User: Which sequence fits this backbone?
């Protein structure tokens, strides 16, 4: 099949987005590729389509377990064979998965960069027929990137094991310096470079400074109908704002990593299907979610850098229709961000203290536990050692960035079963142990022969229903069979986990780059200053500022951000005044809804009209009532 036929058959699309077709062709020609596509630009298609046309499997390296699992699930829904290997899996499960990649028909193998260094992976890799290596979130390889991860530096060693295999590196946000770092650190050979402009013609960037952030949020949501994401920094704030919006008659829900899998899935689905209009979330939400009709993304707290802001804001307007990315802030927020970034670089002595506490917590011997994962509850850990959770969390993230541990903040992993014996021995066991015969037959009837070759997700409730017993009794039978080594049973888990990437170290000799730590501290501070500078400035087109930050020279302005609209207001003072007078005249007769008011004025310039209304609301000349009708304020 051609690449377009593959796209139609498995994705149902009739055409590629620019420059997907060119990227795919370069991959098929065996070239190394560096692709910089903005959020929502369809990066995964750029390696998934050619992988299906090549002879062998595609090795995909990505740092986010939740995203990894989501992509594997979607590929399986399309009838494609895909697996993920990460720290949430046991040794036996990883062993079977790698065997399936060597001897089976697996087409996509997703791994975290930490897994590449394990002995079991390196041994099997030599036997795998790898056709393509895809490095997602490639900016993580650069110490100048906003989410640097030292394990990414080891990816290039794959070149020595599979010298003829092409690489494709993908990212949504990379400065010129980061791009050069990706090219060098991945040893890309004369790569074909594809970069889509960072400009989003349909996305209006807006900053609103205000004393009353909640009221300004309401005003933004009222002005722009349609689905919205509201980003905040704390879990508590997601609940508080969502409940406040509900009281204001706006359908809203909240989302954060502390919710159960069922809660997260239910709330995400209710928003995706437009049962609720607004989802208030920490930055745990949004990655991998394909909802094209998001009209507004509002940040109620300042992001730490322009890279993460552009990525989160870019979740609005993927359908190409006019959308808005708004920051609502107060001067205090700038001080809070500055303090947060400064505190995010803990002293080395404190890192040593936290690392030693982890070793004590799990009673780990020196040199042990490489690649091992342990359930981790931050509150219980802090209580045990009498530590402040916010400081401990920052230190854990720093230890992760230094490549010592990996912190997975809770991801859903369903119960899984694998029959650890062959059919002949299983039949002999059933004959000799009649009480286990019903559950074994039920497992085979419900989940089939795949149980012999792989770990299969199972439902204890479904098994119990088939056996006509209580769920706890079905669990007890599975646990008993696990102890008898007839099957391997991994119960459901969605707890956070700590994985020791390196063997347990001596805290006084932690392998950290002290000079590099100081460089990254200064780099994070400069990124923060760029973010606050973007927020505070009101004289340059916001899209132009973002483009130049990422090294894209441009003399064009977007014409739709708040700065451009203010300039348009000054340049079109007569039209601005005419809209003001028409609004005053109409509202003097009776209060009107925003859409009715606009219909009555019939403005030639929609954006300028919206700006006039905003200006009159800010000046308290007109105001919204509790049912969102606009009134003329009586002087």
Assistant:
């Amino acid at each position: 099949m051609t690449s377009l036929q593959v796209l139609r058959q498995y994705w149902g699309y009739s055409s590629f987005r620019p420059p997907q077709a060119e990227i795919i062709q370069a991959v098929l020609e065996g070239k190394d590729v560096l692709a910089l596509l903005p959020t929502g630009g369809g990066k995964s298609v750029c390696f998934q389509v050619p992988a299906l046309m090549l002879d062998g499997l595609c090795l995909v390296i990505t740092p986010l377990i939740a995203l990894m699992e989501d992509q594997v699930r979607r590929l399986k829904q399309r009838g494609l064979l895909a697996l993920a290997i990460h720290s949430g899996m046991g040794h036996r499960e990883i062993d079977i998965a790698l065997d399936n990649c060597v001897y089976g028909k697996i087409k996509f193998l997703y791994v975290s960069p930490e897994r590449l260094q394990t002995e079991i992976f390196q041994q099997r890799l030599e036997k795998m027929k790898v056709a393509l290596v895809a490095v997602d979130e490639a900016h993580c390889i650069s110490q100048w990137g906003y989410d640097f991860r030292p394990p990414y530096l080891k990816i290039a060693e794959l070149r020595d094991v599979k010298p003829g295999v092409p690489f494709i590196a993908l990212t949504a946000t990379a400065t010129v310096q980061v791009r050069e770092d990706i090219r060098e650190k991945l040893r890309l050979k004369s790569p074909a470079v594809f970069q889509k402009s960072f400009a989003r013609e349909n996305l209006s960037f807006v900053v609103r400074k205000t004393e009353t952030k909640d009221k300004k949020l309401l005003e933004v949501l009222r002005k722009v109908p349609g689905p919205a994401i509201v980003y905040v920094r704390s879990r508590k704030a997601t609940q508080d704002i969502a409940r406040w919006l509900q009281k204001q008659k706006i359908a809203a829900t909240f989302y954060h990593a502390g919710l159960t899998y069922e809660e997260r899935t239910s709330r995400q689905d209710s928003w995706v299907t437009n049962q609720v209009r607004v989802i208030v979330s920490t930055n745990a939400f949004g990655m991998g979610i394909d909802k094209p009709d998001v009209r507004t993304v509002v940040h109620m707290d300042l992001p730490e850098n322009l890279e993460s802001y552009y990525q989160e804001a870019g979740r609005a307007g993927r359908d190409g229709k006019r959308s808005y990315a708004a920051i609502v802030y107060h001067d205090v927020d700038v001080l809070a961000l500055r303090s947060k970034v400064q505190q995010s670089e803990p002293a080395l002595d404190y890192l040593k203290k936290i690392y030693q506490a982890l070793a004590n917590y799990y009673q780990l011997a020196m040199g042990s536990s490489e690649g091992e994962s342990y359930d981790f509850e931050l509150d219980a850990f802090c209580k045990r050692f009498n530590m402040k959770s916010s400081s401990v969390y920052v230190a854990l993230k720093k230890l992760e960035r230094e490549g010592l541990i990996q912190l997975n903040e809770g991801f859903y992993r369903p119960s899984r079963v694998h029959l650890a014996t062959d059919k002949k021995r299983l039949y002999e066991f059933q004959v000799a142990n009649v009480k286990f015969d019903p559950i074994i037959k039920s497992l085979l009837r419900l989940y089939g022969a795949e149980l012999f070759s792989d770990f299969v997700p199972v439902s204890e409730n479904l098994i119990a229903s088939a056996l006509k017993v209580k769920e706890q009794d079905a669990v007890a039978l599975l646990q008993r069979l696990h102890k008898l080594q007839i099957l391997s049973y991994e119960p459901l888990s969605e707890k956070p986990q700590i994985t020791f990437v390196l063997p347990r170290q001596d805290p006084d000799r932690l392998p950290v780059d002290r000079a590099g730590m100081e460089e990254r501290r200064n780099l994070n501070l400069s990124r923060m200053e760029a973010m606050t500078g973007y927020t505070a400035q009101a004289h340059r087109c916001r899209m132009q500022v973002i483009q130049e930050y990422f090294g894209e020279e441009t003399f064009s302005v977007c014409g739709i951000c708040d700065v451009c609209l203010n300039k348009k207001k000054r340049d079109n003072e007569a039209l601005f005044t005419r809209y003001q007078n028409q609004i005053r005249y109409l509202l003097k007769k009776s209060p009107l809804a925003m859409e009715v008011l606009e219909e009555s004025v019939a403005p030639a310039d929609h954006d300028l009209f919206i700006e006039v209304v905003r200006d009159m609301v800010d000046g308290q000349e007109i105001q919204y009532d509790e049912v969102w009708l606009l009134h003329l304020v009586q002087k």
Summary: The two ends are 72 Å apart (CA to CA).
